[in-house]
Amino acid sequence: LIAPEPMTAPVARLVAEAHTIETAAGILAAVAGEDATAEECGLKPADLQRAGRLRERLEMLSIASERDGSAPTLAEIAADCGVSVSTMQRLFRAAYGTSIAGWLRGRRLDHAHADIAAGRCSIAEAAFHAGYGDVANFTTAFRRRFGVTPGRLARQA
């Protein structure tokens, strides 16, 4: 066997960067709803399908909890999907590039953004509905996600 020549530091960095970009592209494709392959997410095909089912179930449970005010625990969601909490969290993060809590927080912020932009509620009400007890914390999270404060968005609406 012929051993490959060792890579120089710049080439090794380039190879590592290419791998990182490829992985990120797979995760972004999964988040965007495109058909990412299991390899792109670093999952087995069955695990990628399971992650998709988990997200669908999480979406349904989230919608139901918004209607009646109950919020299922991660243990309840995992049990409902037939996996452990740790497996559910691992699959979700691998497939979607974010934690379940981060995804839920983003979803609530998206709803708050839509409500504020449409003038359906005040910033304090949006913060409360998004699960924030402190408007300042809500404003910080909102600005990080959308690049604009809720007050500025409300003034633009």
What descriptive keywords fit this protein?
2 domains, 157 residues, single chain, 73% helix, Arc Repressor Mutant, subunit A, mainly alpha, 9 helices, globular
Task: Explain what this protein looks like in three dimensions.
The structure is a single chain. This protein has two domains: 8-98, no CATH class; 99-157, Arc Repressor Mutant, subunit A (Orthogonal Bundle), CATH 1.10.10. 73% of the residues lie in helices and 0% in strands. The chain is built from nine helices and no strands. The chain has helices at residues 9-31, 38-41, 45-68, 74-81, 85-96, 100-117, 123-129, 135-146, 150-156. Helix 3 (45-68) crosses helix 4 (74-81).
Topology:
Blueprint (H helix, E strand, L loop, with lengths): L8 H23 L6 H4 L3 H24 L5 H8 L3 H12 L3 H18 L5 H7 L5 H12 L3 H7 L1
Helix pairs in contact: 3-4, 3-5, 6-7
Q: Summed up, what is this model?
A:
With 157 residues, the protein is mainly alpha-helical. The chain is built from nine helices and no strands.
Number of helices: 9
How many domain units? 2
Order of helices and strands: HHHHHHHHH
Counted beta strands = 0
Uncertain segments: 18-32
Shape: globular
Largest sheet: none
| Mean pLDDT over the residues | 76
Helical percent range?
over 70%
N→C terminal distance: 68 Å
Strand content: under 5%
Structural class: mainly alpha
- Radius of gyration from the alpha-carbon trace, in angstroms: 20 Å
